């Protein structure tokens, strides 16, 4: 295949970088070697580097030869605490850790984008900041500390890409407005009075209270939430008791709540607290609730989403560009979009012929590496399009 002008050899380099990172994954808040790997390459290309941003974050700063806006491009770097079960030469060498969500590919793509801009400074108006972010996978996430460290100061727009295997290779997708859900977690500890399984009249049964609570919490979505507003409440665990003939003194539940707007999000939290207190009291038990507010929803700027559809159609053709439906997974890129206009985008990376058919966070997860070049092209197109429009508006 004939290589695109300006991208000669880049695909092979990105595959090499990605496979190195895949062999040597580092989980959230421990990405020191990954950060050093990134910084070393950026410095080799004459790019100004800022290290230790928000922890292990790295920013590569590329200034063009002409004045213009500051555009930030973001990739996440962290791996997951999952045992790699793939049979391939780039399988993880770290026991209990693997890149099971494509962050190694994201890092490789942004390195490729940085190299391109470093080689084409004469065409660049303004400044590109390539943000390599740690700790997307684990609360409280890396984005908040990145912002606290001033990384967004002076930035005019921000873009992020996620390789997405539910989409086939060759497709790209995004949407205006809410795209990915807010993700909140809860832990409920029910306390009662245990005793003999044959004499329940002398106990306050926490398992019975927990079972009733599991069922009643489902009524929040069906009876308290506007049917036109998506919401999910899932009980993921329930633990109570240690023997078949003993009534448990304690029962523990945990779960997750997913929503797309802050009003629904607040209502879900309030109703969970209220129902938990009422239901457990009805069974003469008491509950302790730990409710953790996670990442907010990813809400794309309307104008920047329109830019995606225009630029992606120009690059890939209209038949390959999709409007993604809302999805319930969460992303801390949401925090950046609360501060700046921008857009989060999916690049389809699924290909069963190459074993890229397992879901994200699966022990055999993989993606089609050929799509990384599509991610680079999309990053470049979004950044340069924003710069052109910005300059036109400020002339």
Report what the structure shows.
It is a single chain. The chain is of the alpha/beta class and 395 residues long. The protein has helices spanning 10-23, 32-44, 103-119, 143-148, 206-217, 219-224, 262-282, 302-316, 333-339, 372-394, and strands spanning 48-53, 57-63, 66-76, 125-133, 157-168, 172-174, 177-180, 182-191, 195-196, 231-240, 246-247, 250-259, 286-292, 298-300, 321-323, 342-350. It has an eight-stranded mixed β-sheet with strand order 1-2-4-3-5-16-6-15, sandwiched between helices. The protein has a four-stranded antiparallel β-sheet with strand order 10-12-8-13, with helices on one face. A two-stranded antiparallel ribbon has the order 7-14. Helix 3 (103-119) links the parallel strand 3 (66-76) and strand 4. Helix 1 (10-23) runs antiparallel to helix 3 and helix 8 crosses helix 10. The mean pLDDT is 96.
**Oligomer classification:** single chain
Tally the helices: what do you get? 10
Poorly predicted regions are none
Please list the strands of the largest sheet in the order they lie side by side: 1-2-4-3-5-16-6-15
State the shape.
Answer: elongated
Sequence of secondary-structure elements: HHEEEHEHEEEEEHHEEEHEEHEHEH
Structural class: alpha/beta
What is the rounded Rg? 24 Å
Largest sheet: 8 strands, mixed
- In helices, the fraction of residues equals 25-40%
What's this, in brief?
By secondary structure, the protein is an alpha/beta fold. It has helices spanning 10-23, 32-44, 103-119, 143-148, 206-217, 219-224, 262-282, 302-316, 333-339, 372-394, and strands at 48-53, 57-63, 66-76, 125-133, 157-168, 172-174, 177-180, 182-191, 195-196, 231-240, 246-247, 250-259, 286-292, 298-300, 321-323, 342-350.
